User: Which sequence fits this backbone?
C-alpha cells in the first residue's frame, strides 16, 4: 500500500489530514528475543503485538472509511445471526478484547452498532494506537487498558457486550477466557467473537501464503525487476522474524461445533456459530502475502480497490456456497452467546 489518502481523508493507519504522526512501533524484535519467545507464550504475545502496532493497519489494509465500516458491520451481523434483527442499537456499554488498533469496535461505532466503547489488549502499543485512532475519528471518550481476556480489570456485570475480532486463537485457555467475559457481562449481556480461523481454513490459507511468498520474492529479485519491485532484504528478514513469532502466538484453529461446545462449558446460553469466506480467502491470503513481499510504492489505491472488490465479489459467491457446503470448509468462524 502507498501513502495515498483514503476516501475519508485519512492515510493508512488513520493518520489525520493535518499530518500529525502516528504512534510508532515499540521496536523490532531481535533474533534473540524471538528465540526466547518460543518458550514463553505470554512474552510472544506482547512482543509480537507491540512490534506490529505501528504497522498493523497497513499490513491488514485496515482503515476507518466506508470500506471497513461495511466489512465490520456485515461481519458483526453475521456473527449475531438471528439476534441481529432483535438487539437494540446501539448495544450499550461494550468491551473489546484484543482490540488491536481498534478496527472492529471503532468501525462498529461508526456503523451505529456501538456507542460506549472500552478497548483492551495485551499490547500497550496496540492500546495506544487504538485510542489514537478513536481520537482521530472524534471519539474522545474511548477508554482503554492493557489487559488479557482471562484477567479483565473490571467489576462483575460491567458491560452489555463483550466483543473481539481475530483474538480467540491467541488465547491459551479459550474456555477460561469466555468465562471471564461472562463475569463482566450483565445478565442477558452478549459476547461476540468473529474472524477466527477454522481448522481446514487455516491449512489452505497458510499453504497459499507460503507459495505466494516463495514465488513473489524469487520473481521480484530477478535482475530486471529487483530495483522497482523488490523489498529491501532487511525488510524481508524482519517479515520472516514476524512470521516466526506469528507461529508462536497463533495457538488455535477451531472446529465450529467444538467452539460452540467450549462456549457452553464456559456458562453461556443461546450459543451459535457462523462461518464465512471460502473463495474470498483463496484470493485474500495471496493478496495479503503479495503486498507484504513487494515494494509498496508499486501498489496504489487502484490495487487496493481491485483486491477489495475482488474479495467482495467472491464473498457474495461464498454466501451461495454456504447453503450447500459444510460450514467447516470456510475460513472464518464466529461465535456468540449470552449470559444467563
Assistant:
Amino acid at each position: 500500500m502507498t501513502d495515498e489518502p483514503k476516501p475519508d481523508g485519512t492515510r493508512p493507519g488513520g493518520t489525520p489530514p493535518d499530518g500529525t504522526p502516528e504512534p510508532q512501533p515499540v521496536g523490532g524484535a531481535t533474533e534473540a528475543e524471538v528465540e526466547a519467545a518460543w518458550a514463553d507464550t505470554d512474552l510472544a504475545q506482547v512482543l509480537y503485538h507491540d512490534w506490529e502496532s505501528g504497522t498493523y493497519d497497513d499490513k491488514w489494509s485496515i482503515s476507518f472509511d466506508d470500506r471497513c465500516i461495511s466489512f465490520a458491520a456485515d461481519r458483526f451481523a453475521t456473527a449475531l445471526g438471528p439476534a441481529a434483527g432483535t438487539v437494540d442499537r446501539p448495544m450499550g456499554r461494550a468491551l473489546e478484547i484484543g482490540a488491536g488498533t481498534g478496527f472492529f469496535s471503532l468501525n462498529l461505532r461508526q456503523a451505529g452498532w456501538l456507542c460506549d466503547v472500552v478497548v483492551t489488549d495485551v499490547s500497550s502499543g496496540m492500546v495506544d494506537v487504538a485510542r489514537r485512532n478513536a481520537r482521530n475519528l472524534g471519539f474522545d471518550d474511548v477508554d482503554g487498558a492493557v489487559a488479557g481476556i482471562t484477567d479483565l480489570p473490571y467489576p462483575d456485570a460491567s458491560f452489555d457486550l463483550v466483543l473481539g475480532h481475530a483474538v480467540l486463537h491467541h488465547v491459551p485457555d479459550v474456555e477460561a477466557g469466555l468465562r471471564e467475559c461472562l463475569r463482566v457481562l450483565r445478565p442477558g449481556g452478549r459476547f461476540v467473537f468473529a474472524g477466527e480461523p477454522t481448522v481446514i481454513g487455516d491449512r489452505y490459507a497458510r499453504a497459499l501464503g507460503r507459495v505466494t511468498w516463495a514465488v513473489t520474492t524469487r520473481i521480484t529479485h530477478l535482475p530486471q525487476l529487483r530495483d522497482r519491485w523488490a523489498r529491501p532484504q532487511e525488510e524481508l528478514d524482519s517479515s520472516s522474524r514476524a512470521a516466526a513469532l506469528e507461529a508462536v502466538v497463533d495457538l488455535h484453529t477451531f472446529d465450529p461445533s467444538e467452539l460452540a461446545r467450549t462456549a457452553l462449558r464456559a456458562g453461556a446460553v443461546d450459543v451459535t456459530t457462523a462461518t464465512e469466506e471460502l473463495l474470498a480467502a483463496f484470493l485474500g491470503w495471496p493478496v495479503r502475502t503479495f503486498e507484504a513481499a513487494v515494494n509498496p510504492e508499486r501498489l496504489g489505491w487502484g490495487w487496493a480497490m481491485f483486491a477489495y472488490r475482488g474479495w467482495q465479489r467472491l464473498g457474495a459467491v461464498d454466501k451461495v456456497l454456504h447453503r450447500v457446503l459444510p460450514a467447516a470448509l470456510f475460513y472464518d468462524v464466529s461465535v456468540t452467546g449470552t449470559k444467563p
User: Anything to note?
Assistant: Residues 1-27 have pLDDT under 50 and may be disordered. The two ends are 45 Å apart (CA to CA). The domain at 31-338 is CATH 3.40.50.150 (Rossmann fold).
